[in-house]
Amino acid sequence: MKPSVEMPVYLQERMQKYIESHDVTNGLKADRFIEIMKTHRGFCDIANIDNEEFMELRNPLIVFLGDSVTGGHFELKDLWKMEIAQDPFAGYAMKFLNLLHDEYSVTTPSLVNSGIAGDNIHGMHKRLKRDVLRYDPDLVVLNASINWSVHRGTLEYFKQEYEAVVKEIITETNADLILVTANAKFSNANDTDFDERTQFIRQTAEKYHLPMADFRKIFDDTLSEDELKLVLSNGENHPTPFAHTIMAEALMQTVKE
């Protein structure tokens, strides 16, 4: 069930102009991954298929860890049946893969999308080994600050779980890790710490010297509160397909030389 809601053209143009003229990273790059993408050629010497060295060859591998936004979920179609339009190809993960191929056309990266709708950092921590670590990725993108509220735990518990996930990815893989802040969303009475979670992600990127793409900054700098509802396909927290394009372009800023 593909999404049908899209943002007004004037907001598309505004966000596009913004991302083309602003660096929304913290100035750090995924250097190891960039080098892999520059030097990998995406093919093997067929004469060596029977040699041990053949099994060392593979495509560069990217894993996205996140929630419904990462998984490619959009507007709510039927509340009672909980039917939600979903299209991973309209989401920022696949759009990032396409942009990456445009930038580094000599190789073919593979992508695992481990975004699960409704999940939060606690669930991501529980499934980290299964959904990220076992793949031995070359790049991991972590998007994990939505779906948290007083019913799920304190702000301190969120910080504890988030930092634990970051540490495990750093210590258990050789991957470059890119942190992203979540897109702007509408808060409710049970979710009062979104700004604090956003700031903690920025601080964590600085603490561990990790590249970061600040999705939240794009939304905050380009949209009024009234306009925000026009770029959220479900009226709450799911960006429209075009907003996903902007997020993918922001992420690309961390993997370009």
List keywords for this structure.
single chain, 257 residues, Rossmann fold, 5-stranded parallel β-sheet, two-stranded antiparallel sheet, 11 helices, 14% strand
Layout of helices and strands:
Layout: H1 9-21, H2 31-39, E1 61-66, H3 68-71, E2 73-78, E3 83-86, H4 92-103, E4 110-115, H5 121-126, H6 128-131, E5 139-142, H7 155-172, E6 176-181, H8 194-207, E7 212-214, H9 215-222, H10 225-228, H11 241-252
Parallel strand pairs: 1-4, 1-5, 5-6, 6-7
Antiparallel strand pairs: 2-3
Helix content: 40-55%
List low-pLDDT spans: none
Strand content: 5-15%
Mean pLDDT: 92
CATH superfamily: SGNH hydrolase
Number of DSSP helical runs: 11
Count of domains: 1
Which radius of gyration do the C-alpha atoms yield? 18 Å
CATH topology: Rossmann fold
Largest sheet descriptor: 5 strands, parallel
SSE topology string: HHEHEEHEHHEHEHEHHH
Describe the protein in words.
The protein has about 260 residues and is an alpha/beta fold. The chain is built from eleven helices and seven strands. The model has no long low-confidence stretch (mean pLDDT about 90).
Quickly describe the structure.
By secondary structure, the chain is an alpha/beta fold. Helices cover 40% and strands 14% of the residues.
